[in-house]
Here is the input.
Amino acid sequence: MNPHAVLNGKTSQVTEQAVELIHQRIQQGIYPIGAALPAQRELATQFGISRASLREALTRLAALGLLEIKAGKGVYVIAQHSQMAEQWDLEYPVSLKDFYQLRYILESFCALLACEYLSEQDKATLQQYEQRLEASIHEKNWQAASEYDYAFHQYIIELSHNQTIIQTLKLHIDHIKKSQILPFTQANLAFKTIQEHKLILQALCQQDGLAAEKAMRAHIIGAAQRAGVYFSRYDNTI
Here is the structure.
């Protein structure tokens, strides 16, 4: 690895970091639309990652509609925003990025508050939603997966007992449901949803408010990235 590597961490982490860094450079115009990215060998050396990790990052960005990979010719920038974000912007007045940031703040706080009220029956209900979500993902039934995902999140929101947050999010039910199906468009990353929900559920069952808040924030960040949206984390413990 390059001693001056830009990225570091486990293989899965550096792939995600590479996706985020390339995405940022596209957004900033460093890699403008129509331009070819630097050669893969050069990029891998610059980032200090393996060619395999870089190829995975490029494949993800291509799946989001930002890049086009032309065999034997290179990798070209074809859009600044993911196809999901572009479609979202046509349908809703609030940007997809803004909406994920809203969920990041409110739903993580709901997870923290929920730990004060959880009963054994509530824990069993959340476990049931998580199990059905996992089964739907394994079956590649994305519609069912998004519905159980919504039910899981909505139950936590209701458990917060914060009526201001509950009513605010009720105004955005259609937005929430749409945002929860978008991450499943990258089917090869759907297993990450399972892992993230298990961490949220574990923290909730232990009634560890801070851990539940942190796990929910990590999940919203992950879901946003799978939909092609990147924004700064506001908690450096994640």
Summary: The CA atoms of residues 16 and 57 lie 7 Å apart. Strands lie at 67-70, 74-77. The chain has two domains: 11-79, 84-227.
